[in-house]
Protein: DUF4931 domain-containing protein
Organism: Thermanaerosceptrum fracticalcis
Amino acid sequence: MSSSTHLHFNSHLGAQKPRTIARQKPNPAQKNDTSCPFCNRESLVDILASEGPLVLLKNKYPVLEDTLQLVLIETYNCDEELSIYSKEHLHHVIRFGVEKWLEIENSGEFSSVIFFKNHGPFSGGTIFHPHMQIVGLKKVDYRENIREEDFEGVVITQAPGVEFNLSTKPRVGFFEFNVVLSDINQIDQMADYIQTAVHYVLNYFDYHCNSYNLFFYKLEEKIIAKIMPRFVTSPIYLGFSIPQVSNRIAEMARDVRERYFTEGTPSPNTPV
Ligand SMILES: [Zn+2]
């Protein structure tokens, strides 16, 4: 398969996309507002698979050339968020997403397949409603830009087959959480650590943070999730590709451990 460094973006199609990301909290007065394309289920087309609230369908605005762009809708309603999902729903979402992502990768039709989630105004997303994206890339292999050290870090906690850490060499900076799964049977534990990271970012981060990305990587036999809090991106990274790491990562790792993994602390989806 031919290999490229750049994806080609169709800006004409991009200009037609609906944008609801600016909405921070759903307005109860707009409960039946059908302006969100993912709430309006009857209008969905090109559905490839569904299980209860989960729907995998083709992206209506496939702006990336030489790709297959899919959307995974996670919930019936806009007013839910991964950090407060019940454990049952959380596990369902992550299992379903990973299964479909790997199915597409195993089809052999793509150079590589990327799987990720945007949340909030600084995440690069356009739709507020909880969803993820799976994109098969015909000409680009994302693994060429990935290094093992991207996922090394100060260990927050671990369980058999899963490690939860805070990057010592972030890809961008300053704080990046990683969940490294080496035993697929422990995928529910991976989902729990992802939820903890997202909950921490949205509730306890030093600076008010309302945006994050969740990225998935398949590296040999490992599945890795990176949770990246999003702010305006550092110019030092944008202009010079120099990532930055905070001198507070050990302190933050300890804070996460104390809040979530000390005996008697509430689970992330318990209202605080
Ligand atoms: Zn919606």
Summary: The radius of gyration is 18 Å. Residues 11-143 form a domain with the HIT family, subunit A fold (CATH 3.30.428.10). The chain has a mean pLDDT of 92. DSSP finds five helices and ten strands in the chain.
